[in-house]
Amino acid sequence: MASMKFPTKCLLFFPLILTILASLQNYSSQAQTPTLNPYDFLHIIPNPDGSITRPKEFFPTVPPNTSSPLTFSKDVPLNPNKKPWVRVYLPKYSKPVNDLPIVVFAHGGGFVVQSTASPPLDSFLSNTASQLAALVVSVEFRLAPEHRLPAAYDDVLEALFWVKEKKDEWVSKYGDVSRCVIMGESSGGNIVYNVGLRASDLVRELEPLIIRGLVLIQPFFGGVNPITTGVAGNLEIVFDLLWNLSLPLGAPLNNPYFNPMFGGGSSNLEKIKNLGWRVAFAGCDGDFMIDRQVEVFKFFKKRKLDVVGDFCKGYYHGVFIGDPTQAQKLYDFVRNVFSSYMRY
User: Fold this and answer.
1) Beta strand 211-217 with 278-284: parallel, antiparallel or unpaired?
2) Is 311 exposed, middle or buried (0-12, 13-18, 19+ CB in 10 A)?
3) Is 99 a catalytic residue?
């Protein structure tokens, strides 16, 4: 397999959300924390109709097939009526390969910002396809508040059916739909968890697609108490805004979308266990959400899921997208967890 490369030009557009989160961690160390306007800090502008404006200078995107020599990529409409689409990544090989495992991916951004076409994420996904020797289908799901949850969950679930139907030439010619893993980072990890719950009810309807497991990368979860430990209130202000923009109007912060442990957890966790899905859980203790992530990881263990954790020391939220060395460790972890299905 070719070595992983992150183009220099992508570093010029280091994901805004990662910069935001790192800055918030710096805020937490200040003796006197100034009051923060979360809209200004996120570089979004609220509009009178309840929508938001996302200035392009803060949220750049790139066309397909530009970030890496390691893969081909293309954009394909998922549902013209609702306007989500997918970016598909096909690793380059010297000889034809027709049975690649399929990774369906959900990006981060607090459900409110970011795109699968953002330069660093596009580069990360290109490397993901190359390093995992997989056909990657990354979903450009609808964003909140224009489309509140469960819209993002609906779109990623629809992407699973799109893969199942094999209408796209790359999926039908190069992919093996019987070896599908759903992967997501930050709020995308939350999406993967919630989509996994739904998909566990639809196993027969999804055939011949077979889900083999879930990959939760620093997932964005919450609960009854604040999601962070040892940090200043500005962090909670920003995350409260993201959730208030994302959740159905009037929904409390403590709810099943936000908190996997709500009400003792979903009854579908038992289905995930019985289906034999593996759950790979990646994080780091420098992430200010680590306590909640570890709590959820232990809860999954308690519910007897086949969950495997890899929690490294130090770093920050978003490190697996922003740091090539840690991304490589993530790929090694995922390959190990799903070694029966990722054979290359």
Assistant:
1) parallel
2) middle
3) no
Active site residue 317: yes
Q: Which domains does the chain have, with CATH numbers?
A: 10-337 (3.40.50.1820)
Q: How far apart are CA 185 and CA 318, in angstroms?
A: 8
Taking every pair of C-alpha atoms in the chain, what is the biggest distance, in angstroms? 60
- The answer to whether 153 and 139 have CB atoms below 8 angstroms apart is no
Confidence band of 342 (pLDDT split at 50, 70, 90): confident
Q: What is the pLDDT of residue 31?
A: 43
Q: How far apart are CA 124 and CA 141, in angstroms?
A: 18
What pLDDT shows up at residue 80?
82
Task: Count other Cβ atoms within 10 Å, centred on residue 9.
Answer: 12
Q: Of residues 118, 126, 130, 186, which has the active-site annotation?
A: 186
Distances (CA, A) of 130 to 65, 159, 163, 212, 251: 13, 21, 19, 20, 41
Per-residue DSSP letters for 162-199?
HHHHT-SHHHHHHEEEEEEEEEEETHHHHHHHHHHHHH
| CA–CA gap between residue 197 and residue 221 (Å, rounded) | 15
Output the CA torsion 275→215→21→312 (10° steps).
110
Residues contacting residue 131 through CB under 8 Å, at least 6 positions apart: 1, 4, 328, 331, 335
- β-strand partners of 103: 136, 181
Q: What is the pTM of this model?
A: 0.91
For residue range 23-77, what is the model confidence (pLDDT) as tens digits? 555 444 444 456 789 999 999 999 999 999 999 999 999 999 876 788 999 999 9
Distances (CA, A) of 220 to 157, 189, 289: 18, 7, 8
Q: Where are the beta strands (DSSP E) in the chain?
A: 45-46, 52-53, 71-77, 85-91, 100-106, 135-140, 175-185, 211-217, 278-284, 306-312
Q: Which of 68, 200, 246, 317 is catalytic?
A: 317
287 catalytically annotated: yes
In this predicted model, what pLDDT tens digit does every residue of 5-19 receive, in sequence order? Answer: 333 333 333 344 455
